[in-house]
Specification:
By secondary structure, the chain is of the alpha+beta class. It contains 10 helices and 17 strands. A hairpin with a 5-residue loop joins strand 13 and strand 14. Helix 1 packs across helix 2. The chain is globular, with a radius of gyration of 23 Å. The two termini are about 30 Å apart. The structure holds guanosine-5'-triphosphate and magnesium ion. Magnesium ion binds next to helix 5. Belongs to the TRAFAC class translation factor GTPase superfamily. Classic translation factor GTPase family. IF-2 subfamily.
């Protein structure tokens, strides 16, 4: 990638940046780990490491692969206006460790169950859809819990494509912390509007005013101070002001976003998280971004393929279909895809298998190349 540093490069291939610096030094090139390196330097390094420096990004490569099957990942430019339907906003919940992101989502979800959403045992699927009433309209919001997951990294990279709004959770007793800043920078870089949830206001030592002051310094100026960022004081524990938070999200969506998707086409979207279940086999939580996913569809998710055997929502209820912005647990895949990888519905099982096989072969080749590079570097450092 353009502007990449040795640190970026080292991270990509899973080696230590310092050894790359040293190797370049021995080749007569003085480069620090953090400065961006030009293509020639990268190529020089690649030659030395027996590594093909990829001028093409993996995303471009995948796009080409799909194009060879006449599939385009992403919004179709030619979509007829008439086919577009309103879709719920996709909201990522971000913030510093332990500031209450997961608890807040649980509170929002359980408030929903009480509201009669139905259901069996709640499932942890990493993504949830809740209903709220705003001005008499029933509105839905899709939440994605980010922390801890790899999905976060991948999603950050995909930026605004995967998330429409970011809810920045800041604990009022702790204030702005390093990951608060990191999270808000990612949202800003992706151009995603931010709603601030000042959490834990039930605590006696909570100081929500201080949080406002701190965030103002990072350019998030509260509306009540004349800025344009909505701040909502909440308590996930005491379930305080949850409705206000939902309303702020809906208002943000209505004010600045045109959220529509073609529900009629084959489904496409992202893998939020996935695991191997003893009884059910590979289970993947996916977010449908466009189109409608049906039970029985032939699907490719990363290097996994299969036919959708069953779909479950966040309450464990079976779904027969899932439209735009809906998170769903999908059963029936051949393997466990990676968080952040895309999924697509294709014509038939044969095509699904062909695409999956090509992706798998590519992943395997990349892994082998990385291993080779590591060995070469180890030999170099030992010599
Ligand atoms: P990571 O996923 O590790 O980044 O943390 P998180 O942001 O998801 O935090 P989590 O929801 O796990 O909550 C962390 C701790 O704070 C737990 O012990 C929660 O019970 C507590 N907590 C969360 N929200 C509140 C709140 O509103 N009030 C109080 N008093 N405690 C809360
Ligand atoms: Mg959490």
């Amino acid at each position: 990638p353009r502007g990449a540093s040795l640190t970026d490069f080292a991270e990509k291939i899973g080696v230590d940046a310092a050894s790359l610096v040293q190797m370049l030094f021995s080749l007569g090139e003085m480069v620090t780990a953090t400065e961006s390196v030009n293509d020639e330097t990268l190529e020089l390094l690649g030659e030395e490491l027996n590594y093909v420096v990829q001028v093409v990004s993996p995303e471009d490569e995948d796009r080409e692969l799909l194009e060879s099957f006449d599939i385009e990942f992403g919004d179709d430019e030619d979509t007829d206006e008439a086919d577009l339907v309103a879709r719920p906003p996709v909201v990522t919940v971000m913030g510093h460790v332990d500031h209450g992101k997961t608890k807040l989502l649980d509170a929002l979800r359980s408030a929903n169950v009480v509201a009669g959403e139905a259901g069996g045992i709640t499932q942890h699927i990493g993504a949830y859809q809740v209903h709220t009433e705003v001005d008499g309209d029933d509105r839905r919001i899709t939440f994605i819990d980010t922390p801890g997951h790899e999905a976060f990294t991948a999603m950050r990279a995909r930026g605004s494509q995967s998330s429409d709004i970011a809810v920045l959770v800041v604990a009022a007793d702790d204030g702005v912390m390093p990951q608060t800043v990191e999270a808000l920078n990612h949202a800003k870089a992706a151009g995603v509007p931010i709603v601030v949830a000042v959490n834990k206001i039930d605590k006696p030592e909570a100081d929500p005013t201080k949080v406002r002051g701190q965030l103002t310094e990072y350019g998030l100026v509260p509306e009540e101070y004349g800025g344009d960022t909505m701040f909502v004081d909440v308590s996930a524990k005491s379930e305080l002001n949850l409705d206000k938070l939902l309303e702020a999200i809906v208002l943000t969506a209505d004010a600045s976003l045109d959220l529509r998707a073609d529900a009629g086409r084959e489904a496409q979207g992202l893998v939020i998280e996935a695991h191997l279940d003893r009884g059910r086999g590979p289970v993947a939580t996916v977010l449908v971004q466009r189109g409608t996913l049906h039970v029985g569809d032939s699907i490719v998710a990363g290097p996994a393929h299969g036919r959708v055997r069953a779909m479950l929502d966040e309450y464990g209820n079976e779904l027969s279909e899932a439209g735009p912005s809906r998170p769903a647990m999908v059963l029936g895949l051949s393997a466990v895809p990676g968080a952040g990888q895309n999924f697509i519905v294709v014509e038939d099982d044969r095509m699904a298998r062909q695409i999956a096989e090509k992706r798998e072969a590519r992943e395997r080749a990349a892994m082998q190349a990385k291993r080779r590079v590591r060995r070469t570097l180890e030999d170099f450092m030992a010599s």
